[in-house]
Design a protein that fits this description.
Number of strands: 0
Helix content: 40-55%
Order of helices and strands: HHHHH
Largest sheet: none
Radius of gyration: 37 Å
Strand content: under 5%
Length: 141
């Protein structure tokens, strides 16, 4: 028997063509086409040729988080902490608008900026109190 799809010889006792895999009983060539079996699937190249792109890291949020860490380490009387707070707030607003990554860095910068500002205020208050107390007494000179 001859395969009606590819024209090769089908051995007796087999149901399918050994060359193309067509069913020996099928008379319609269009019935064994892959397009007719799965019309809703696209070829692999068409489905997966788009590269995966991650959202970018927001530079303002990252800068605010790093400056927030530096403000705790350096303790420059809250000046660096103010910068961390500004950068982090700007970065967080950009993240909410653009969908960038870095929300954790922005929140870290905001928290550490607030802590740094409070710490700076406490240090200034402490040193002001110490100097005011030290220079308030006269030693009789």
């Amino acid at each position: 028997m001859m395969c009606e799809y590819c024209g090769s010889t089908i051995l007796s006792g087999t149901s399918f063509c050994s060359a193309c895999g067509a069913n020996a009983g099928i008379r319609n060539k269009a019935a064994i086409q892959p397009e007719s079996l799965m019309p809703h699937f696209q070829p692999y190249e068409q489905q997966f040729n788009q590269p995966f792109t991650r959202p970018r890291m927001n530079p303002m949020a990252l800068t605010g988080g790093i400056i927030g860490l530096a403000s705790i380490i350096l303790n420059c009387l809250g000046i660096v902490a103010i910068l961390a707070l500004i950068f982090s707030i700007i970065g967080l607003s950009q993240i909410n608008k653009n969908g960038d990554r870095g929300r954790g860095w922005a929140i870290t910068g905001i928290i550490l900026g607030i802590i740094g500002i409070i710490w700076g205020i406490l240090v200034i208050t402490l040193w002001s109190t110490i100097f005011a107390y030290a220079f308030s007494y006269s030693y009789g000179w």
